[in-house]
Amino acid sequence: xxxxxxAALCGALVxxxxxxxFARCEAAGVHSSAVVDAASGAAIVGAASTYNPFKPGWRxxxxxxxxxxxxxxxxxxxxIKTSLRQKFGGVLFGARPKYALVEAVGKKIxxxxxxxxxxxxxxxxxxxxxxxxxxxxxLELGVIxxxxxxxxxxxxxxxxxxx
Length: 163
Prior knowledge:
- Helices cover 25% and strands 29% of the residues.
- With 163 residues, it is α+β, with helices and mostly antiparallel strands.
- The protein is globular, with a radius of gyration of 19 Å.
């Protein structure tokens, strides 16, 4: 009986140690490509553009996103095409944000999907300024073709580059 209790306690400690290690990895924002690929849903391929509701001449949107958060050009965030809203878990006001893996030009990032919109035909995602600068540092391209976007399972991802 004592042996069974010790084995159970040892097993519980191993599980706890693994979960603490994983949590530290998440908090540090370090996601390996293998972990991200394993947690990815079906891919959507299309074009990505950038948006900023505060940019002079911007014709749509406003300071608040569909999730209720204020637009933040310094965050790793994006707006998904309205017709893809359900594929990304809704993107609802006040709800926990959803995340996506965005791949283009040989780079990968995780973005928080906190907004939706009627994007220009052919475009599937609007990246905020920080996310777009990761792919296009000068913001000269405006649109990036052949972008792959995959919904990420779970709610606790750290946005940013995937290493």
